[in-house]
Write a structure and sequence with these properties.
This protein has 370 residues and is mainly beta. It is built from one helix and 24 strands. The protein has a six-stranded antiparallel beta sheet. Strands 4, 5, 6, 7 and 8 form a five-stranded antiparallel beta sheet that branches. Strands 17, 18, 19, 20 and 21 form a five-stranded antiparallel beta sheet that branches.
Length: 370
């Protein structure tokens, strides 16, 4: 089979637009267009006035999960990874916590989030197993039991000040209420390092639900697990989405948010990626993070039908690259962990992404299938 790729980068005053056209030999074409929302400005930043929409008491506010609407979350909400610093060293960060931020307004057009305060913390370090921080949430809402399933990294500070991450699970029906959360602990306690889990719930289908997980730390790719009750998971050996030499994902691949269905019955799964070759002001850091995608078979989500040869989202704007006057804990990063289907537009999704490990942005992704 042959794959033809055409990439067109277009800059407009009102938004930044990237179009990637993928022509597949089987006759099915996927065209991706991405535009930044919120007038190309961060949604959440500590550089905004503290009590204004999008403001935060936390220095760094980034990787986010989206909580879909429900009876307890009427407008939708975000779970945001937040960190402060110790002293004046911008790289001397305190343990991460996960904060809750309500949507103000609708998701069709500009939208805003309530300010983040210490009172919004819903998951934070508790005991040795998460002494280094609670990080990088991803969330799925299950209509069947009206429960949010939240996957996050519980990071332990081990002997010699060496962090070890364990992919952990929490559940709640009322995510704004910290006391409602049940913390189920590590999903794979026997695995040395695990993080970044995207859960595909398959209610109404025969067979299990699927967990796509991993960040390429110990295994060079995203891995696969299955579950029949969403609480206990079976780890499968092997690599599901490998890193690729000489591509935008040559250093690492890492799970994004849960896969979502397209109008043709297949799933779109976004993943994060890294590549070397982008020097920055951060000492010993030359990595650029981008967003890629795969198409998963709608009947068998263990089959990959197509994969990006170019990223659909890259750090382009100053606050995504961490350029002054914006914050830049980790320069040259866009990182997607949350998204939601657009309420009115076909095959269109709203992405929520961390930028430079410092702020939260939003973009609209449209897929045209022919």
């Amino acid at each position: 089979e042959t794959t033809t790729v055409t990439a067109i980068r277009m800059i407009r005053q009102s938004f930044c637009l990237l179009i990637v056209l993928i022509s597949l030999a089987n006759g099915q074409n996927y065209q991706f267009s991405v535009k930044r929302l919120n007038r190309e400005k961060p949604l959440i930043s500590s550089q905004y006035p503290l009590n204004n929409v999008g403001g935060s008491v936390m220095k760094y506010n980034y990787n986010t999960a989206f909580l879909p609407r429900s009876s307890t979350v009427p407008n939708g909400a975000l779970l945001v990874r937040c960190q402060n610093i110790s002293g004046s060293d911008v790289y001397q960060t305190q343990p991460s916590v996960i904060n809750y931020a309500n949507v103000k307004g609708t998701l069709d057009g500009d939208f805003q989030f309530e300010p983040i305060s210490d009172n919004n913390i819903v998951i934070e370090p508790e005991g040795m197993s998460s002494s280094y921080g609670t990080e990088d949430p991803r969330a799925v809402y299950r209509e069947k039991d009206q429960t949010y399933y939240i996957l996050y990294s519980a990071v332990e500070n081990t002997t010699g000040n060496i962090p070890i991450s364990k992919l952990a699970l929490a559940t709640t029906k009322t995510p704004a209420d910290k006391s409602s959360y049940t913390l189920h602990g590590a999903i794979f306690p026997e695995v040395r390092w695990s993080k970044s889990g995207a859960l595909l719930i398959r209610d109404g289908y025969s067979g299990p639900s699927y967990l796509y997980w991993g960040d390429s730390t110990d295994v060079p790719g995203i891995q696969l697990a299955t579950t029949t009750d969403l609480l206990n998971y079976t780890y499968h050996d092997g690599i599901f989405i490998p890193v690729r030499k000489n591509f935008f994902d040559s250093m690492l691949v890492e799970a994004g948010p849960m896969p979502l269905l397209l109008s043709n019955g297949h799933y779109l799964f976004l993943y994060n990626s890294g590549r070397h070759g982008y020097p920055s002001k951060k000492p010993n850091w030359d990595v650029q993070y981008n967003v890629g995608w795969v198409i998963l078979d709608g009947q068998d989500p263990t089959k990959i039908l197509a994969r990006a040869s170019e990223p659909i989202l890259s750090p382009v704007l100053a606050w995504e690259k961490g350029d002054a006057p914006y914050l830049g804990l980790t320069p040259n990063v866009v990182f997607v962990e949350g998204w939601v289907r657009h309420p009115t537009k076909k095959d269109t999704f709203i992405l929520f992404y961390g930028a430079a490990d410092s702020t939260v942005g939003a973009a609209e992704l449209t897929v045209t299938i022919s």
